[in-house]
Design a protein that fits this description.
alpha+beta, YaeB-like fold, 4 helices, 30% strand
């Protein structure tokens, strides 16, 4: 399958990058590289994850983030990459376009 990041997911990755880069120089790059490894794995494993609020949810391996995506034909559409430490109401809001 082909994996495509929507603009909203790209923005979430940039936000995560900035957060981790402020914690320690170079950690933001490691965050992005790690998340992209998880996102790239969706080309093989897309559609096997648990459904949450209408999206498949893949938990990242190295950071407390979840990747929310849909499968459309032979394409995985990544809608959001969200911090799992946030309140569930915040996550619901983001997934509903808020």
């Amino acid at each position: 399958m082909k994996v495509r990041l929507l603009d909203s997911a790209k923005e979430h990755l940039v936000d995560g990058y900035h957060f981790y880069e402020l914690q320690q120089s170079g950690l933001g790059t490691y965050f992005v590289d790690s998340l992209f490894a998880d996102i790239d794995s969706l080309a093989i494993y897309g559609g096997i994850h648990t459904l949450y609020l209408g999206f498949y949810r893949c938990i990242a391996k190295r950071f407390p983030f979840a990747i929310y995506y849909l499968v459309s034909g032979d394409e995985v559409l990544v809608h959001a990459v969200l911090d799992c430490r946030r309140k569930p109401s915040w996550t619901r809001s983001k997934l509903r376009g808020g």
